[in-house]
Design goal:
- With 125 residues, this protein is an alpha+beta fold.
- It has one domain: Sufe protein. Chain: A (Alpha-Beta Complex), CATH 3.90.1010.
- Helices cover 45% and strands 20% of the residues.
- The chain is built from five helices and three strands, in the order H-E-E-E-H-H-H-H.
- A three-stranded antiparallel β-sheet has the order 1-2-3, covered by helices on one side.
- Strand 2 and strand 3 form a beta hairpin.
- It is globular.
- The N and C termini lie far apart (43 Å).
- 37% of the residues are buried.
C-alpha cells in the first residue's frame, strides 16, 4: 500500500521532537481523521535552519511530517510560502488516495508556522 520511501520515513522518522527556542511553531489537526501535527521552525535571517515535528496519526502522516522537515531545512521563507502538499506527496513516491490528507496536514502546518513567525516578528497578537 505504501512506497518504500513512505515505509522508511514511517519506520525511521527524521527530525522528531520539540525544538526548544523555536522561532515559529504551529499545531494543526485534520478533523476528518483526527491526525494532529505540531511543527517547530528555527529561522536564521531569511532561511529555515532547523525543523522538527511531532505527529499523532497514521503512518502516512508520520512519513509526511518527516519528509516535510527534510524539505524545509535550507529553504528561504519565500520558498517555504510556496510549499505545497504535492511536493511532499511526490517526494514520498505517492500516497494512496485515502491518505492524501496527510500531505494536506503538512501544508497546513507550514502555513500556520509561517503565520506564527510573521506574528512574532510584527508583535501582533
Amino acid at each position: 500500500m505504501y512506497s518504500e520511501v513512505v515505509q522508511d520515513h514511517f519506520e525511521h522518522p527524521r527530525n522528531v521532537g520539540i525544538l526548544e527556542q523555536a522561532d515559529a511553531e504551529a499545531e494543526v489537526m485534520n478533523p476528518a481523521c483526527g491526525d494532529i501535527m505540531r511543527l517547530y521552525l528555527k529561522i536564521d535571517g531569511n532561511c529555515i535552519v532547523e525543523a522538527k515535528f511531532q505527529t499523532q496519526g497514521c503512518p502516512a502522516a508520520i512519513a509526511a511530517g518527516s519528509m516535510m522537515t527534510e524539505m524545509l531545512v535550507d529553504m528561504t521563507l519565500e520558498e517555504a510560502v510556496g510549499f505545497k502538499r504535492d511536493a511532499v506527496n511526490d517526494a514520498l513516491g505517492g500516497l494512496p488516495p485515502q491518505k492524501v490528507h496527510s500531505s494536506v496536514l503538512v501544508e497546513d502546518a507550514v502555513r500556520a508556522a509561517l503565520a506564527d513567525y510573521r506574528k512574532r516578528q510584527t508583535g501582533s497578537t
